[in-house]
Design a protein that fits this description.
mainly alpha, 10 helices, odorant binding
Length: 390
C-alpha cells in the first residue's frame, strides 16, 4: 500500500499526480502511448461489441444501451482530462507556489500545520475513493463469475432440468464466442473483458480524484484568504500593507485556479448531466421489469454514478460558498479602523469577491446540489412519461 502513502507531508496532491503518471497522462511523451493502448482495448472489448454485434432480444437493448452510455461517459471524461493535462499542470504549479511560501521558514506556523493536516486528509479521501471504485468494479466482475461458476457445477452434475446460461458482466456479444453456453468461451471473455472493466473503473476513479483534488486545494486557498483577513486588523501598521498585498495575490491565484478548473471541466460537466439523465432513465426502465440477479451489475453502475454525481455537485457547492466567504471576511475584518489606502484596496477585493465563482456546465449554469435535484426530478418526469410506452 506504499503507492497510496503520503511520503512528503508538504507535497501537493501526490496521489493524483502519481495516478496520472501511472496511466500515461503525465511524464514522458512515450508514456502517453500506454493511455492510448488502454483506450483502444476498451473500445475493442466493450464499445465495438455493444455497437456492432447486436443483442439477444429487444428487451435487453435498454440494458445494453445504458451500459454503453456509462462506458462512453467514462471514456469521454478521461479523454477530456488527457486533452487538458497541461492546464492541470498549470493548476498544480500555482498551488505549489502558494504552499511553498506558506510552508517556508518565514510562513505562519499555524497555517503550515493546517495545510499539513489538510494534505493528509485529502490523501486519505482520494485513497478511499479510488479503492471504493475498484471495490465496486470487483463486485461488478466477480459476482457474475461466481454465479456462472455455480451454474457450471450444476450443469456438470446434471442436476438442472435444462442447461442454464452463464451470466456476463455486461449485456453484449463477444466476437462470435458462445459466452453464455460454452464455459471455455466464457472464461476467455472474462479474462479479456476484466482487463477492460478494471481499466475503465480506474479511469473513472482517476478523473474523480483529479477533480476532487483540484477543487479542494482551491477551496483551501480561499480559506487561507479568510484566515489572513480575520487577522489583518491585529497586525502593526507597518506590516498591514505587506500582508494585504500577499492576501490579494493569494486571492488572484485562487481565482486563477477556479478559471483553470472551469476550462478543464465545463464541457465534462454538461456531458455528465446529459449522461446522467439518459443513464438513469434507461437503467430504471430496465430494472423496473427485470429486477433479478442479471441486473446486479446494472445496479452497481447506477449506485456509483448517482453517488459520484451527487458528491461532485456537493463539492462544487462548497467551492462557491468558500469563494463567497471572502466577502463576509472583508466585512468583518474591522476595515473601518484601518488606514484609508487599505480600505480602498479592500473595497476592490470586496467588489471582486462578490461575484459568484464555481464550475459551470458549458457556461449554461453552475453545478451545485440544487442542480443535482433538478436533474433527478427531470429524469423521473421523463421516466414517468416513457414507462407507459415502453
Amino acid at each position: 500500500m506504499n503507492y497510496f502513502e503520503l511520503v512528503e507531508p508538504e507535497a501537493v496532491m501526490p496521489l493524483a499526480l502519481r495516478l496520472l503518471e501511472t496511466y500515461g497522462l503525465r511524464g514522458e511523451k512515450r508514456k502517453f502511448l500506454l493511455f492510448q493502448v488502454m483506450i483502444l482495448w476498451e473500445m475493442l472489448m466493450i464499445v465495438i461489441p455493444k455497437i456492432f454485434l447486436g443483442y439477444r432480444s429487444q428487451d435487453l437493448v435498454i440494458r445494453g444501451l445504458s451500459e454503453l452510455l456509462f462506458q462512453l461517459h467514462i471514456m469521454i471524461r478521461i479523454c477530456i482530462s488527457a486533452w487538458h493535462r497541461f492546464k492541470f499542470e498549470g493548476l498544480v504549479a500555482i498551488i505549489r507556489r502558494v504552499y511553498k511560501k506558506i510552508c517556508s521558514s518565514e510562513g505562519d506556523s499555524t497555517m503550515k500545520a493546517d495545510l499539513l493536516n489538510f494534505n493528509a486528509m485529502i490523501n486519505k479521501q482520494c485513497k478511499g475513493y479510488f479503492l471504493y471504485i475498484m471495490g465496486c468494479v470487483s463486485l461488478f466482475t466477480v459476482a457474475p463469475l461466481f454465479q456462472s461458476l455455480g451454474k457450471f457445477i450444476t450443469n456438470r452434475r446434471g442436476n438442472a432440468t435444462e442447461k442454464e446460461e452463464y451470466i456476463t458482466m455486461m449485456e453484449q456479444e463477444f466476437y462470435g464466442l458462445d459466452i453464455r453456453g460454452n464455459f471455455s468461451h466464457y472464461l476467455i471473455y472474462v479474462a479479456l473483458g476484466s482487463i477492460a472493466f478494471f481499466t475503465s473503473a480506474s479511469f473513472f476513479a482517476v478523473t474523480g480524484v483529479i477533480m476532487n483534488c483540484g477543487v479542494r486545494y482551491t477551496m483551501s486557498m480561499f480559506r487561507l484568504i479568510v484566515v489572513r483577513l480575520n487577522k489583518l486588523h491585529e497586525l502593526p501598521e507597518q506590516h498591514i500593507r505587506e500582508e494585504l498585498r500577499e492576501t490579494i495575490n493569494l486571492h488572484v491565484d485562487a481565482l486563477r485556479c477556479v478559471k483553470i478548473l472551469e476550462k478543464i471541466a465545463n464541457v465534462a460537466m454538461v456531458i455528465q448531466i446529459v449522461d446522467c439523465v439518459l443513464i438513469w432513465i434507461s437503467m430504471i426502465l430496465y430494472m423496473r421489469n427485470n429486477l433479478s440477479v442479471d441486473a446486479i451489475s446494472l445496479m452497481v453502475l447506477f449506485v456509483v454514478l448517482t453517488g459520484e454525481t451527487y458528491a461532485l455537485c456537493d463539492l462544487l457547492t462548497q467551492l462557491t460558498n468558500e469563494s463567497l466567504a471572502v466577502t463576509r471576511a472583508i466585512i468583518d475584518c474591522q476595515w473601518y479602523s484601518l488606514p484609508l489606502d487599505i480600505q480602498k484596496s479592500l473595497s476592490f477585493v470586496l467588489f471582486r469577491a462578490q461575484r459568484k465563482e464555481g464550475i459551470t456546465a458549458a457556461k449554461f449554469f453552475f453545478m451545485d446540489v440544487e442542480r443535482f435535484g433538478r436533474v433527478a426530478q427531470t429524469s423521473y418526469s421523463i421516466y414517468v412519461v416513457l414507462k407507459d410506452y415502453l
